[in-house]
Structures are given as C-alpha cells and as structure tokens.
Amino acid sequence: MKTQRSVLDTSHFMFDFGQPEIDVENHPMTLLLEEFEDSYMKTPVMGDIRQGVIVDKRSGEWLVDIGFKSEGIVSGRDLDRLGDEFNGLRVGDEVPVYVMREDKDGNLMLSISKAKAEEDWIQAEKLLENQETEEGMISGYNRGGVIIKIGQVRGFVPASQLSSESQSMQRTDIDPEERWSKLVGTSLRFKVIDMDRRRNRLILSERLAMREWRQAQKEKLLDSLKEGGSAEGVVSSLADFGAFVNLGGADGLIHLSELSWGRVNHPSEVIQIGQKVKVQILSVDLDRKRIGLSLRRMQPEPWETVAEKYEVGQVVRGTITKLVNFGAFARLDDDAVEGLIHISELADRRITHPREVVAEGDEFDLRIIRIDIDRRRMGLSLKQALPEPEENEFDWEIVPLNENAGAASEAENGTAAMAEMDETAVPEFA
Fold this sequence. Notes:
Helix content: 10-25%
Number of domains: 4
Low-confidence stretches: 1-8, 10-15, 403-430
Order of helices and strands: HEEEHEEHEEEHEEHEEEEEHEEEEEH
Distance between the termini: 199 Å
Strand content: 25-35%
CATH superfamily of the largest domain: Nucleic acid-binding proteins
Largest sheet: 5 strands, mixed, barrel
Number of helices: 7
Radius of gyration: 48 Å
Structural class: alpha+beta
Mean pLDDT: 80
C-alpha cells in the first residue's frame, strides 16, 4: 500500500558537488560590466555639467579635459561672457563646463558660462525655497528698477521692491530712464520672490530683505544698547514731533525737545536727512521695541557757562522767540539761553499785550536785569536798553522883534505888580 509523501524537507541534507566558490567581485563579467558602466557614464550628454581640467589656453579658445576620448573646446565668445571672473585660471585648474554639442568636425563644444548659469539658477532656486537673504551689487538699471547679477543670472528688483533708502537716492531732475543711475555700483540685500527659469525671469526684493534684516538688527541693538550710553547713526527721516536716526538697522527717536537746548519749532532747523550724528541713549523699551535718543545732551548745557559770559547790567543782542500775555521770550544771539522780557520792561508806556511793541523774529538790544543760575532764569529789559533822549541845556526859540517888545512891556508891568504886592503884603507876627 502506497503512503502519501509529505513536502520534502531538505534542511538536514548537505550537498557538495565539488565546485569551487565563485568570486563575484573579481569575476570577468563583473569587471566588464563596470567598464561598460564607466564608459557609459563618461560619455557626455548634451546638457550635462561636468568638472573639467584646463589643458591648454589657446588664442580665442580653451581646451578642457572632461575624461572623454578627446578634449572639449570652450570658444572665445563664451569666454567673453565670463568677464574677469575666470581670467586668473591657469592650465591644470579645474573648471565646471556645460556639454553643448559636437561640431561637424567631431569636436565636443563646451560652455563655462552656461555651466555657471546652471549653478546660479540652482542657487537662486535654493534662495527662493529657503527664503534666505543674499547681498549683491547693482550692475544696471532701467526705467522700472535695477538689475543685480547672481553669478551669470540677471535678477531684477522692481522700483516697488526697493527700500525707502534706495528710493530716496533716485534722481528726479533728469530723464526718467536715468533716474536709478546713482545706484549703480552700490550693494544691497535682497530676497528671491519669484522665478521662471524657462522664461529667464528672476524677481528680487530689497524691501522684504531689509525688513527682516532690520528686525534682526533691532533685536541685537536692543540687547546691546545701555541707557546713558552713546551711539552714532544717520538721520533717516523727519517728523513734526522729532527725528528718526538709523543706528545700524534699527531706528531711534530724538524728540523735538531733545534736539537742542534752545527752542526748536521743527527738526529741520537743527538737522537734515542723511546727516551723521552722535546721540545719547535715553531709554530702551524691550517690550515695545523703542529707543529714545537725545542730541542736545551730547553738547554742553548752556547755563553752565552763563555766569562766565553774562552779568547784570550787560547789554546783549536777542531775538524774540515767543509772545505770552505777561511778556516776551528772547534768545540771546549765538547761544541757546533764553530770557524773559516782562511786559512792564517792554516800553515806557502802558501796554496790554507784547504784540503792541514786538513780534516773533524781531532783534533788539536788551539789558540783563536779573540772572538766576539755579532756576535757569534770566530777566531782560527792552526799555532800559533804549538810548536815552538827548536833553537840551536851554529850551528856547527866536521871537519876532514886535512880539519881543510886547513881551518886555508885559514883563515890566509884571515886575511893577510884584513890587506893589510886596509893599502891601506885610507879614503878621505873633
């Protein structure tokens, strides 16, 4: 009777056919395959970017070895596109090349400029993906903005994407086509905001890059600035209430009252946009990210030298700065010291308001009548500085002859009357 066989289990059998173990790594077929793969990989394909070695620099062309059966040729026209960037290369130096085609003579044509452009497009793509900030030099311009080269790739910064500092440098006194000419040769920070490689389109923004850069710089400045310390900056803008100063990426405010020791109606009276200034740090608000500055505190306080320069009774030249009901304020020439001319010291006659005698901007000689160093006050007088009128020794005028005779007759009659009164007027004695 036949029994049913189970599935054969060969795990306990050992087979030995007497054949040697095969060395796969050194097998002829493996080596042949590797040679084929190496040959296939070394065969240049149009569009490849290879690393080559310069073997000869002929007039109008370079020979570059990329590991192919023959050297490739970089034309003189392609070398001209590179500018001065590769002038320092010598025979034996490595250089990236772009495989273009074979010419009719079988020469492999290569391009260094295209290889660099491909690398630059890859770099621009990374900048767009990572939103990193880069710095570049402005190489050209047109009516709509400026041009920055990222290697061999031309990027365009529209006027709307330029920072306020760059826009303030545009020229409005010439042809609009030339308005950005002043920016050529300057460097600026930028971010890639749009690109289309097929259309050779690369759009950059300085405005976004500067916004992020200022924010980062502001964080650093806020940590480093100390109240009471000093810093240098450039006036970036003016407002009715004060001036903003760029301290290196972050703006601080000089309030109108901190611009000068004297009275200031508008910041333009003291400083201008673009002016370099040294300021004192008044306050640093980390929560609100605000910096308070002072320009006047970097200068000597005028009242410290008042005692040396002025004394009571001295006549000085002053300019009327403000009128109030009780008098007028005047600033002494070439100084920030102001004094008060009380309404009673404006004129010899009675007046109801200072405007009856003076107006803002008027200049007068004034006499100092009071100095209070501790309270920072000075009393001035206009009427006491006025020249005294000349007094005539005799007040007389020529009288006609006929009137003179009449006057003499009257005088004689008067004398007689006085004599008669003297005779009759006898004093009484007790």
